[in-house]
## 1
Amino acid sequence: MAAHPLRLPAPEAVFSDLLTDSRRQANPETTLFFAIPGERNDGRSFIPELYEKGFRNFVVQYGHGNRLRPNDIPKANVLEVINVVQALQALAEYHRRQFRIPVIAITGSNGKTIVKEWLSELLSPDFSVVKSPQSYNSQIGVPLSVWQMSRRNNIAVFEAGISKPGEMMRLEAIIKPDVGIITNIGTAHDEGFLSREKKTAEKLMLFQNAEYLFYREDGGNDVGRLIEKLKFKGPKLQPWHARQEGADNQGRPRVRLLTEGSAASYILPFADAAGTENILHAIAVAQHFGLKPVDIQRRILMLRNVAMRLAFRKGINNCYIIDDSYNNDLGGLLTALEAMHQKNRSVKEGMTLILSDMYESGGNRDELYKQIARIVRAQGISRFIGIGPGLSRHTVDFGAGSSFYPDTEAFLTDFPNLTFRNELILVKGARVFGFERIASALQEKVHGTRLEIDLNAVAHNLKTYRSLLRPQTRIMVMVKAFAYGSGSYEIANLLQFRRVDYLAVAYADEGVELRRQGITLPIMVMNPAAEAFHQLIQNKLEPDLYNPGIMQAFADYLLALPELNRPKPKIHLEFDTGMHRLGFRSHELELLIDLLKKYADLWEPVSVFSHLAGADEPEHDAFSHAQIEDFYTSAPFLEMALGKPLIKHILNSAGISRFTYAQGDMVRLGIGLYGIEPNPEMEGLLQPVGSLKTTISQIIHIKAGESVGYGRKGKAKKDSAIATIAIGYADGFSRRMSNGKGRVLVNNQTAPVIGTVCMDMTMIDITGIPASEGDEVTVFGAGLPISEMAKSLGTIPYEVLTAISERVKRVFFQE
Ligand SMILES: *Cc1c(COP(=O)(O)O)cnc(C)c1O
């Protein structure tokens, strides 16, 4: 790849880290930044900011670099290339060629990341594994993953994903795998390919030079058949299949795995189909690398079904906990630290790391701990707690602000003497240390009912909607009502990181709370009350002025303020085109224009919008089209009168997917972000975000004819098992769910409510369902969609979500 040094004031510069995303934490002195041009975010535009932070080495695209003024970045080395992404790939390709260790590559439509995580976990006691961080499997993610290979490693596990033809060739050249796994071929990214076969053929290119290819022969997916049909030659094919052989005494499935030339039985830690398939992929390959079935068996029972998730929870004394008390290796530590920085972006809390010894094999331990000490310093960790004899030998390397304990017990004994306050705490330990006890000591104590929020799903849904829109269309996200019950701050923080353009709340208080927690995105307030005007100004919140009355009131308020040298407040204008909730009516258009002219000096109008009344229901489509037309006809009159363009927006979630043509300059995404869309076409594209879970407090057995609960409303028709669960109408589990109306999931089986729902508890009939006290119960979530609960209540998911009371703890998950 030809690189033209545009400017090279410091040609002796060396770098060891690559960066493509300016938001990520990196050491300026050792990093080479690749300014990737993009429609929305142009990497080049972050160079001045990075230069300011001390970064000195940049790769820019031909034709882009000359727009950087040399005086702005006098000491920077700038390399100009024809294509930045390809330059990054070429560098990774070169790096890969320096290693002779076995490289395993995983592709397929689903399960890549989890198979990679599990396989690495199975291998790591015997090998020093390097693996892709998180789900780095794209044209940019793969080179960054491969770049992590170092002399310390003796095996590599990378994942590769593609969305268009032609991409796999390039990934193949970078990864050059020896062993392949193809997980399955589903419908994801089907739109990019002519047929399922073409897509499979493209995926298989990854393995054209590999020695072995593992895949599942039987089962619901077509991989085996497609491979046969395509007559794929190259690697030795290693199909496996599995037979269920009953269960052990704890009800865990026993499965016999048959591979080329071997057969072994395993007890699996979970029973769901996807989890089973994923673990069997990992086992088949672990066997191939010589692991003994007894060792594999021991290790798989310790895997969690959500292995790569970091749980993010509210802790004691205003702390936040990132709980990664499950695996501990250098790569995992870096990933977790990165997640920590992402969280800490807006709230500047103290950062604490509680870390155990590492049991990674290979390499020099002392060198490893010294390296960790350097990382801890570079990452701005203010408090370090090392647990284990290994770390304890390195107290000098960690220096001030650190403390050490020989084991977890010693730490827990000392715990009452320690204070944790306003800290963001990363708890990361190898499994043997049992760090979940530390995480639970730090966690805020609330009753066991919780709403689990999958932040990855939020990001996925945002991306899905973005893909429907033109790149230049802005996105405003509605985070009103505690972000539809999902937790305003955490959602807003994620959206800020993902660079949405605007947030909107219903009332000023909601906006104030977001500002207090450090959210800096512009925020529109839909229903600003006159009493809250001072809050708007103080917190840079932008009101929607929706009728002449509120507009006049805001003008009067501003006129009465002392003359100060402050920026003009930004305002938004709303038209009522048929919703009849808020907004200027069409006969008020002239009055509105008069007011805007009269008060032109007071404020800065930035947007004009309207709201669709029936965007989600085809029966109202004619009405919706009329609203859209009315809006786009009236808005230009305002722009003419003001002599400047306004951001025009009318689409809500259902509008985005059903009336995409009307996206204007911005859309207002709401419920769809949370994974719920009335439009059936979107159903498969979105991921559910929230799961409401509780636990069984007690199980009793009653005789036929006995009654259950208040008013003796529940009657046992036969001898029954009754479980009391820790959720009631005060939590948002409506009393209308009483007497069989509502259903919950216990160990994947439906159990109806028996009797009336109480304030804090509910009784359910679990006759015939294997369950014990303390078991988890799903109120809605995987296997029981929130839409079903809404249906049995005769309402819509919006109401179910926002009715979940604040006392229900929100738990956030993120990769
Ligand atoms: C709530 C709201 C939205 C978002 O609606 P969804 O149906 O949740 O997508 C958009 N615009 C306005 C004015 C709203 O009040």
## 2
Amino acid sequence: MTNLEDNFTKLQARINMARTKHAERTKNVRLLAVSKRHSADKIRQLYALGQMDFGENYLQEALAKQVELADLPLGWHFIGSIQKNKTRDIANHFDWVHSVDRSVLIERLADQRPPDRDPLNICLQVNIDNEASKSGFQVAELAAACELAARKPSLRLRGLMAIPSPAVDAEQRLASMQAMKRCWDNLIAQGSELDTLSMGMSADLEIAIQAGATMLRVGEALFGPREA
Ligand SMILES: *Cc1c(COP(=O)(O)O)cnc(C)c1O
């Protein structure tokens, strides 16, 4: 068994164990393999094991891998911070964007998504721990952002995404993720058709599952340490 295969098997066992433990809250949990700083070859190996969705943070790096992997029917998710001048490439070359952290990106991605393509799936990034250093919508801004996204036929608003502060302990991490879940539930109660709560990474995926995440973004636990 290769390292990657071993990691994949262990990760699936971790996810299944947490799902069993929190079965009352978890329905579907989708795995996004975060492949930043890892080769196209590793993505190809993981695809051969059944993984379909891959997350990338750096546009140029991602575009190069997409060319190498154009023969595979992969789902490409952009999860990195977005400069305004990169939105056209992102709207053209990805299936999902998790890191929509301000309204101008909703406008630009909607305008720049090619009309012949399926709508671009987006998640709104929420600054859940109110970190000054982190971008993202404040909770109070979300309802308006959802309404804006819902008016764009070239976008499909799927849900919310969070990167909790690395500074907090497990208890506070759980509280933040539970706050995300409540926020997501409230938006659904107000009429948004959301099906995705994107949170949980290598170190805290059990906590995310406990809080009700539907999509985990896992890098290191799958691919090992990132190349510099
Ligand atoms: C890198 C990254 C991940 C994956 O983190 P790991 O700790 O390697 O699992 C998830 N989400 C985002 C936004 C990232 O940038």
